[in-house]
User: What shape does this take?
Amino acid sequence: MRIRKFIPKSCGALAALASFFMFLTVVEAGIYEKVNFQNADSLDLTAYLVRPDREGPYPAVVFLHGCGGMMYSGYVTSIYASWVQQLTAKGLAVLLVDSRGSRGLGPTCGKSKNRVRMYRERPKDAYAALAYLQAQDFILGDKIGVVGWSQGGGVVLLTIEHDSSGRPVPLPEHDFAVAAAFYPALCSDRIQSRPYTKIEPNSWSTKIPLLVLFGGSDNWTLLAPCVQFIETVQKRGNPVSITVFPGAYHGFDAPALKIMTLPKYKTVSGVIPIVGTHEESRNAALQQLPAFLSKYLLPEK
Assistant: This one.
């Protein structure tokens, strides 16, 4: 498999990124419409809907946040708000699902006892969001994608698998049309199996086009197993691809926040995560992801 790599023009191009709570640098939520719906477990979910500034109906994208959540003191964190701005400018509606807040949980990172719970339950949140959007007359029901970050990226992989534990019965008339995952957790052919899905190890498959975007220096979610996973499932005929950004850490697409270590979120294997913006990689992702989503979501003219 050919792995696409973005080669920065300047190896020193690192913009400032403030703490894992890069995910907690906040943006006023004035344009966000708060909505509620239930998942298949009858859990009441809170989400935030943003529409593009044009007449509908629109394609839409579901956002699945990382282990730190997507809200802080009632505000949407900047990593997600910046992507909302990018995608709504392209004519896509965005629905941000607050899986953590809806469960009354704090961060579910590192050794959190709720981490496994989130992987088991959140695919149902994704499909509940799909059903909510498909019930809206201003949304194109067959043009809905899903994008996740870190833990949420792992949830994307669990969600789009052909026998996902989150997929409702009966199936929706239209499944997700496209998916993307930034530096996804659980990115392994072995882990993408029971108990998180209904399948055995080494049998993951999907019909949904998937793009993975990963920092080459990420030490929180590991690149090598993910490359092997994508390469293996691609050889099995699945429509998946990965772009690697050399020198970029976890959270490289967050806006203008400096690199730092996060001892509080030491992984189960004892690694202290490093997070931070890699400006040139971020700029490349700002071009690549909207183009990829648009290919499958925007109506042909």
User: Anything to note?
Assistant: Residues 183 and 214 are 5 Å apart (CA to CA).
